[in-house]
Write a sequence for this structure.
């Protein structure tokens, strides 16, 4: 098992993460999309239980890493670009039964491999940034619009205020971008205990039987998710 994470995550986070996996790929791009998300794997990668889809203009080093470790992937159709309209094609969330995204923005390969699933329309095209699937019908989001849709579908959805989640060049990041789930363990880029909602989220996760791994004692950092491959 390997991890992919924003290279701009703190040295402490990357060092701690290495203790849980065989290796860590520090993800970065230059000139492909705007700076705040240029190191975010969830802008260039889509992952569900059965597939990994990679944007065709993802860094060559990422393709070399995946092939070197015999990690299967599909190549998407659409390049990631430099504005909000063309930087969200891979930022969707897939579960065994559902695909969550905003209509009109999803890469065709992702739509094809999820054609048997119910597409759940969300108001936020930066879906993976804003939404964490824990397991079953349990979710965490930092977007009130997403929360409303999920609750309307009968899902369990814990709202986590995005304030105090750090990100480059913006007021705040999002909870999806600061987390990664591996089995029944949830990893955070930073310490949820430093957040005003942290204790409530901790209790919620423990009640669901999840192990919580805080990778540092710093404020949460939106690094475009932590991918386990």
């Amino acid at each position: 098992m390997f991890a992919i994470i924003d290279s701009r995550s703190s040295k402490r986070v990357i060092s701690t993460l290495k203790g849980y996996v065989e290796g860590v790929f520090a993800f970065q791009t230059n000139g492909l999309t705007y700076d705040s998300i240029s190191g975010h794997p969830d802008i260039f990668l889509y992952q569900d239980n059965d597939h990994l889809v990679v944007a065709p203009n993802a860094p060559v080093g990422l393709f070399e890493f995946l092939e070197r470790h015999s990690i299967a992937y599909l190549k998407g159709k659409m390049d990631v670009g430099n504005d909000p309209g063309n930087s969200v094609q891979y930022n969707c969330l897939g579960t065994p039964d559902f695909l969550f995204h905003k209509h009109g923005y999803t890469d065709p390969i992702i739509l094809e491999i999820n054609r048997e699933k119910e597409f759940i329309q969300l108001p936020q095209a930066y879906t993976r940034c804003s939404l964490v699937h824990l397991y079953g019908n349990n979710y965490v989001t930092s977007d009130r619009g997403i929360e409303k849709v999920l609750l309307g579908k009968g899902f369990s959805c814990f709202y986590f205020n995005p304030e105090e989640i750090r990100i480059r060049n913006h007021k705040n990041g999002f909870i999806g971008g600061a987390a990664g789930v591996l089995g029944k363990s949830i990893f955070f880029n930073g310490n949820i205990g430093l957040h005003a909602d942290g204790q409530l989220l901790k209790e919620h996760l423990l009640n669901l039987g999840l192990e919580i791994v805080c990778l540092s004692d710093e404020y949460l950092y939106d690094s475009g998710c932590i991918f386990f491959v």
In short: The chain has one domain: 2-228.
